[in-house]
Design a protein that fits this description.
Helices cover 88% and strands 0% of the residues. By secondary structure, the chain is mainly α. The protein has one domain (21-88). Helix 1 runs antiparallel to helix 2 (51-88). The protein starts with a helix and ends with a helix.
Length: 89
């Protein structure tokens, strides 16, 4: 195993992290932005108001995309385990 292969594995790991975290993070960002705009237009300045919609939206995204996220992560783990014999030699 050389440095190029190791850096390729690290780049793949970072890509997997970004791919799996992006739907949740984008949802939290969009919901937070919408709630902030609503707070600014209605002059409601409650700090805790943003948490409940964000948590609800994140739970919905996890419920809808959780299967895809798990299968994607399982495929990545399988690819890594398939590389183990080549690392021994």
């Amino acid at each position: 195993m050389n440095i190029g292969q190791i850096s390729g594995m690290m780049a793949g790991a970072v890509l997997e992290i970004v791919t799996l975290a992006a739907p949740i993070l984008i949802t939290a960002l969009v919901v937070g932005l919408i709630v902030s705009i609503l707070q600014a237009t209605t002059s409601i300045q409650e700090q805790t108001l943003t948490f409940v919609p964000k948590i609800g939206a994140i739970m919905l995204v996890i419920a809808l995309l959780g299967g895809w996220m798990f299968s994607h992560l399982a495929e990545y783990a399988k690819r890594l385990f398939d590389l183990i014999p080549s690392m021994a030699g």
